[in-house]
Design brief:
The structure holds 2 protein chains of 2 kinds. Chain A is 79% helix and 0% strand. Chain A is mainly alpha-helical. Chain A has one domain. The termini of chain A are far apart. The model of chain A has no long low-confidence stretch (mean pLDDT 80). By secondary structure, chain B is mostly helical. Chain B has a domain of 218 residues. The longest helix of chain B is centred in the middle third of the chain and has 33 residues. The chains are: A mainly alpha, B mainly alpha.
Chain lengths: 214, 493
């Protein structure tokens, strides 16, 4: 299989994972989907690397794979056990509508890729990356549980990582920045904040956050 | 070397803060560190040190202006913090708003986070590498969220969570913006590693792919705009500012928002160099006006005086954005406005902290008679209100007038009228609660006893108030020179 068709093959699970994420309410399923998507995406820089494979890129991909595929799911599973929550109940936006919006997001991403004149070889991957970012943002906006919002953020990061791999504008630099974004979330949003929310409210519903408004 | 020391020093001090086991030693470290940073900053801004590490650390006039503001505000906040932290009880106490018990985060963590916050803001101002700039802005979020959650109760947690989620999404969008920007400029340069240096991007701007730049600019504007507090991405700002300790609010409003603005200005510089100023300008004007409208709508009838100040920050960020959109002389006005707003708003937040500590309420209906109960705080509170709403003879009057004149000169009369009308509305909206608080007899049962105001709580706002007055009456030539050079860079000239 040549590189272009390999890239096209990698796009399929990414998009399917997006739609499944929007459709599933079980948090365990969400963790697995994001981890799977992350694992596929973290090796894409190897596919898109135009020159000979450098050690630098390979190491970065391994780090990303370790973080997205192993460390995050483990951390999330551990947090999930501690906070006693299994399902996203009553999201602000229903599941069928979420999926519909997800598909619209994919169409918008394809349109944007065409508008920006992305070369044919990376056209679909670019659109998939953008669609993943939009899916993540949609999850953050429409879900109530702090936990699901974090899943959305991780999905958005997957999208950004794929975008860096497709465009590779700064060489390995952007992959490093994207990994930094990952670590930022791992350390902060996930671990500490959810811990405090859980302790303060005995649950992780962000709709309990309603005392500050005008 | 100076720049490297300036950036690294706060991080070292932040680490050292963990070693200060006793309260007074930690507070001493805070003031000493702030003083050292201020001296180094002044030396760096006016000494124009050489670039370091191949231009990764480089301080131009634009970065220098924001560095100076950050450092001055941090010094004021550090002195204020000595009095503030000494008075905060370490153990559990009752929350005066809802009666639940809560405790504070440890003082060592608070001081360490303040230093990390300072270090990351210094890095924002002192780098020309857009990737590092992005990482530094991300680090400011990381360092400041624990500061917002200093009082460990559910309202501050809610504020910190909103801040984290909205600013994290913002920072993620800004990364997309940076990727698109680099892709826009990367076509011509074979040496891809260097393509995120501002200098390279400016040099290659003529051959840049305009479509990619436009997409990147929109993402950067939304991403950094969220951090800067431009409406409609501002929703974290009132909560974070009202729930965090007042000295943190002062730093968030006066220093952090400016740093995010700097991120946008860097993108604007590239846009002007690429001949795409006409694309950027309506975005700046649109977001600016919308921020002013939003601020006016929420200030009128607002009871919580810290939220009034927070919405006023949304308004002033809107004015900065508007100034950039107008271009020309308005950019100089914008730079002056950034400086004047920083010192004035920090002063007001510190005073709000004094009032809050004495009256134990954030409601402008309950905290009455401030002038009689606390004369210095009360008089400064009224002066600060006049300064922030653009009354003469303070700095903001001068900067707002400059921006208005630029709008009129370019023939945008409708825009100028809307700008003036909104300023007037906000003046009235702020006058009612501020004057209500200042005048009359102190509220019985709530008002503090006659125990005087200590120098640590009124000294820093007094100095900041003096600075805003100086900016209005007479801008010293060394500072107006810095402003002129910063404006030239920001306008892309």
């Amino acid at each position: 299989m040549d590189m272009i068709s390999l890239a096209h093959a990698a796009v399929v699970p990414v998009i399917l994972a997006n739609l499944a994420l929007l459709a599933s309410s079980r948090l365990v399923t969400c963790i697995r989907l994001v981890a799977l998507q992350g694992a596929v995406i973290s090796v894409t820089p190897l596919i898109f690397e135009s020159g000979p494979l450098t050690v630098h890129t390979a190491v970065l991909c391994a780090v990303a794979l370790g973080l997205k595929g192993v460390v995050f799911p483990q951390l999330l599973h551990r947090t999930l056990r501690r906070v006693v929550v299994r399902h996203e109940i009553e999201p602000y936006l229903g599941y069928p509508l979420s999926i519909l919006l997800g598909i619209l997001g994919l169409l918008a991403s394809l349109w944007l890729a065409g508008r920006l004149g992305v070369p044919a070889a990376s056209y679909r991957s670019f659109a998939a990356a953008f669609a993943t970012i939009l899916t993540g943002l949609l999850l953050i906006v429409t879900r109530k549980k702090a936990f699901t919002q974090v899943m959305g953020y991780l999905a958005a990061e997957n999208g950004i990582f794929l975008l860096t791999a497709v465009l590779a504008p700064g060489g390995p630099l952007f992959i490093e920045l994207a990994i930094l974004l990952d670590v930022f979330v791992a350390v902060f949003v996930m671990g500490i904040a959810i811990h405090h929310i859980n302790r303060q409210f005995d649950c992780i519903d962000t709709d309990r956050f309603c005392s500050l408004k005008d | 070397m100076l720049l490297a020391i300036l950036v690294i020093l706060p991080f070292v001090l932040g680490g050292a803060a963990f070693l200060c086991r006793t309260g007074p030693s930690g507070r001493g470290l805070l003031v000493a560190g702030a003083g050292a940073h201020l001296i180094l900053s002044v030396a760096a801004v006016f000494g124009r040190p050489d670039a370091l590490f191949g231009g990764i650390l480089l301080l131009d006039a634009l970065g220098g202006l924001f560095l100076l503001l950050t450092s001055i505000l941090f010094a004021a906040a550090a002195v204020y913090a000595v009095g503030y932290l000494a008075k905060e009880h370490a153990d559990e106490r009752r929350d005066f708003q809802e009666g639940a018990f809560f405790s504070n985060a440890p003082q060592t963590v608070f001081i360490a986070c303040l230093f990390f916050f300072l270090g990351s803001m210094t890095l924002v101002t002192a780098t020309h590498h857009l990737g590092l700039l992005w990482a530094a802005i991300e680090a400011t979020t990381l360092a400041s969220a624990p500061l917002i959650y200093f009082h460990r109760h559910h309202r501050s947690l809610e504020a910190a969570w909103k801040y984290l989620v909205i600013c994290s999404v913002g920072i993620a969008l800004a990364l997309v913006g940076n990727i698109l920007l680099a892709a826009a400029g990367g076509s011509g340069a074979p040496d891809t590693e260097s393509s995120l240096y501002l200098g390279d991007l400016l040099a290659g701007a003529k051959t840049m792919n305009p479509m990619w730049f436009k997409a990147g600019f929109v993402f950067l504007m939304v991403g950094y705009g969220a951090k800067m507090g431009l409406a409609p991405m501002h929703t974290w700002l009132p909560d974070a500012h009202s729930e965090s300790p007042s000295l943190v609010s002062a730093l968030l409003s006066g220093a952090l928002l400016n740093c995010a603005f700097l991120g946008i200005l860097r993108a604007h510089q590239i846009g002007v160099a690429a001949g795409l100023a006409d694309f950027c300008s309506p975005i700046f004007i649109g977001l600016g006006l919308f921020s002013m409208v939003t601020a006016a709508a929420f200030i009128i009838g607002q009871g919580d005086f810290k939220r009034i100040l927070a919405y006023s920050s949304v308004e002033h960020m809107g004015i900065l954005s508007l100034a950039m959109g107008l271009g020309g002389a308005a950019v100089f006005g914008g730079m002056l406005h950034a400086a004047a707003h920083s010192v004035t708003k920090a002063m007001l937040f510190l005073l709000a902290g004094n009032i809050l500590a004495a009256f134990h309420t954030k409601s402008s209906h309950d905290a009455r008679g401030v002038i009689r109960a606390m004369p210095v705080t009360g008089i400064l509170w009224v002066a600060g209100f006049l300064a922030i709403t653009g009354s003469p003879p303070f700095g903001i009057f001068l900067s707002e007038l400059t921006i208005l004149k630029a709008a009129l000169d370019s023939g945008r009369f409708v825009l100028a009228a809307a700008y003036l009308g909104l300023l007037g509305l906000i003046f009235c909206g702020m006058a009612v609660p501020v004057l209500r608080m200042a005048q009359g007899p102190p509220t019985p049962h709530i008002a503090p006893g006659p125990r005087g105001e200590d120098a640590l709580s009124v000294g820093p706002p007094l100095v900041l108030g003096g600075l805003t007055l100086v900016l209005g009456l007479y801008v010293p030539s060394f500072f107006s020179d810095l402003l002129t050079r910063a404006a030239a860079l920001a306008a892309g000239m």
